[in-house]
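User: Before I run my own analysis I want an independent prediction to cross-check against. Here's the chain; please return only the structure tokens and, at the end, one sentence I can use as a sanity check.
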Amino acid sequence: MKKPLILASSLLTLVFLIAACGSDSTPAPQINQVSFTAMDYGFSGSQFIPSGMTEMVMTNTGRELHHQQLLTVPEGMATEDLIAGLVSGEAGPPPPGVEAAGSVGAIGPGATGITALNMTAGDYLIVCFIPNAEGVPHMALG
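Assistant: Structure tokens:
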């Protein structure tokens, strides 16, 4: 007859653990969410990404593989100049101050990818380095 006693003891322990987990007085951190759609050679979605912890969701509605790379646009650099440099096809490192700030990895047609990033205030460019038929990556302002 020890089985009912062990079962009752286990249930009480489980109830205690559930109650202990729910009694934390620290509020959960706010996580922003932004969504983007990748299509064959373009993005649609929010032009503004909030600062702080942000969950980025990208859905690929195109027929090809796409990804989403955020690049920082350094203070004093025109976004148009960064875009021109990227589409020029010149090999080499990015301009000084341009850094990768996170990405949603490559996803196939019909799939959705998610990443969480701690976004700082600033200007960003969203780029997919998977080129179109002309060999040019597609991008959008963020």
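Sanity check: The two ends are 66 Å apart (CA to CA).
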